[in-house]
Here is the input.
Amino acid sequence: MDPFDVIVVGAGPAGLLAAGRAAELGGKVLLLEKMRQEGRKLLITGKGRCNITNDASVSDFITHVNPNGRFLRNAFSHFFSKDIIELLHKYGVETILERGGRYFPASNKSSDVLQALLRWVHELKVEIRCGQRVEKLIIENNEITGLQANGQVFSCQHVVLATGGKSYPATGSNGDGYQLAKHAGHNLETVRPALVPLETAGNVAQQLQGLNLKNVKAVVWVNDKKVAEDFGEMLFTHFGLSGPIILTLSRIVVDALNENNKVDITIDLKPALDEQKLDNRLIRDLNEHGKKKIGNIFRYWLPSTLVPVFIDLLGLDPEKECHQVSAKERKQIRHLLKNLPFSITNHRSFKEAIITAGGISRNEISSKTMESKLVKGLYFAGEMIDVDAETGGYNLQIAYSTGWLAGHSCMKNSN
Here is the structure.
């Protein structure tokens, strides 16, 4: 068998972009996928809708990336949000822009995005083989010469590892790409779940299971010190807390828990009102409804599901009339509205994490090419690199951009 110019391992968004770009530049490209079909994880992103990318500028985009977004600046300069949108439009996927700068396919089907990318690589004559588990890289004199998959040896000049992280392992990303990199001499920054729901002590969250709150503020406290906050939407579950702002804050929480710190989250249910304005509102409502029971007045301040839980936390008699509420009790109500507390006991596993934090050390990868600094001809793309971002289409764009640059660099560096 004639050698390939480029072999890409992993047929997710990063791998597809790497394979497609290398083929555009005339490369003979083989794309190997361990699962029986390509893009399994892409199909479930955005709850099956696929948040394709974000319309943030490069400078703004980088602020949403951890731990060092500047590493991606060169990749973004080569291939960015407008480029993936243009590519998808070319293959029939219309897009819509939603709040937060998030792009989705107009059809709301992630399968349309995957099929468009597959049509692109097929047109470029990329050879795709599914059900192929790569067992080892073949390296001679610190240079890639091929790899072995399912017992068969394939020769090539360049290998792009785009095997994903460890999140949603049922889709194929179980971390085995890290082992290939480690055997090539690469170091791994601690791999942990990111954009992951959180578990709480007590039964308050369980009582509120299914309640979705919008326009609230969540604050993270580590050892009683405020370290982060976010504003937006959250969800109570049978185990604790989830939803966009919780997922965004989870990166800090996971790291703090791993260091055995005490972690709490407080929810500000009235972030638009400072303490004084909220107190004025409480005084007004209590005075207006002086003869009514306090248990009935809480519905003016809270979703109905929250009311009994709130009254229980306060230790108030729901039969008490509003005019009987003391200044001390009013202060307690105000404080709880601004600081609904949850003690965080754990995070959920990789099975429920949207992405993976950690991965191949950025210090060992050229940001200009995505090539390994240790092994000539070895490249990395996507989630397996030690960069990750918040929700909002950022992580998929990182996959496209690093994949495109890796594929591009393979051919530009060809003998």
Summary: The longest strand covers residues 225-236. The CA atoms of residues 183 and 279 lie 62 Å apart.
